[in-house]
Specification:
- The protein has 314 residues and is of the alpha/beta class.
- The chain has a single domain (2-307), classed as TIM Barrel.
- It is 41% helix and 13% strand.
- It has eleven helices and eleven strands.
- The strands form three sheets. Strands 6-7-8-9-10-11 form a six-stranded parallel β-sheet. Strands 3-4-5 form a three-stranded parallel β-sheet.
- Strand 1 and strand 2 form a beta hairpin.
- Helix 1 (42-54) packs across helix 2 (72-82).
- The longest helix is centred in the last third of the chain and has 19 residues, at 289-307.
- The protein starts with a strand and ends in a 7-residue tail after the last helix.
Amino acid sequence: MIRTVTGDIHPDELGFTYSHEHLIGAPPADKRVDEDLVVLDPSAALEEARAALAVGVRSIYEASAWDYSRNPEELRRISLATGLQIIACGGFNKGAWFDDLLADVSVEGLEERIVADVEAGMDGTDVRAGAIKYGTSYNRVSPVEDRVLRAAARAHRRTGAPLHGHTETGTMALTQLDMLEDEGVDLTRVGLVHLMRNPDPFLHGQIAARGTYLCYDGFSKIKYLPESTRIEVILAVVEAGYADRVLIGGDLARKTDLTAYTGGPGQHYIAGTWLPRFRSELGHRGFSVEDADALVRLFFVENPKRYFSFAEPY
C-alpha cells in the first residue's frame, strides 16, 4: 500500500506522480534569512495543487519535513478540496535546519519520533507520513545528521515506509548508502534527491547499480543548469540500463519557482512544458513514440508506484 494524507491507497491508484515537491514549507523561523524560501500561504498551495491536476498529475510527494515547517492538516485539506493525492514527509531535512533543534536527542528518541510520524500522525495530528526523510550537508555529515540518518533507517525497517535522502548539491550520496547498509537497509527502498545538482552520469550509475532510486529534481531552475543538461543526464542513465530507477519532481520550494506567488513556472511546468520537450528530444534521438511513452510511464507512474509502496518491516 501507499500512505497518503487522506489514507492508504493501493499502488495502482497512485497514477501520474511528481516525486518531490513543496506546497507548504519554509526553514525554521529563526533561520529565515531568505524570504524567497518562505512558502506558507495555503491559498497559493491550493492554486498550485489545482495547476498540477490540470496537466494530468494525480499524486505528489510533498517533501517538507518537521524542520521545514510542514503542515499536515493543511495538506489534508488541500487533498480533500482538490482530489490531488498527497504523500507527506516524516522525519527531518538537513543539519542546517535541525542540528541545534535536535542536538540533545538520541538516536532512539529520533527513531521513536519518526515511527510516530508514520504510524500515529505528524505534529499532534492524525495525518500520517508516507515517506521518511533524512539529509546530509555539503561534503560532510554532521554528528546530528549521522544520528538522524540512523534513526530514519531503523524507523524505515520498523514501518516499511520508503526512505528519502536529501543530498546537499548532490554530495555524500555514496556515503549515505554505505551508512544505510551499515544499518541493514535494503537500498532498493531508498531514493536520493538533488543528484541533478551534481550532473555526473558515472556517479549516478554507481548509485543506481546499488538499487537506489535517482530522484531527479530542479526542473525549470535554469540558474543551476539548462534543461539540456538534465535531459542528457537522464538519457545517459537510461542508456546505462537504469530507467527503472528514475523518479521526477520539481522541488519547487521558492516563491520565484511558483506561479501562485510570482508567476514562476509552477506545478504545471514539468507535465505541461518540460515533458513535451523531453518527448521531442527523444524523437530526435530515434526513440519511437511507443518507446517514449514507455519511458514516461516508467518515470511518472511505474517507478513511483514501486518506490512509494510500503515494504514489510524487516
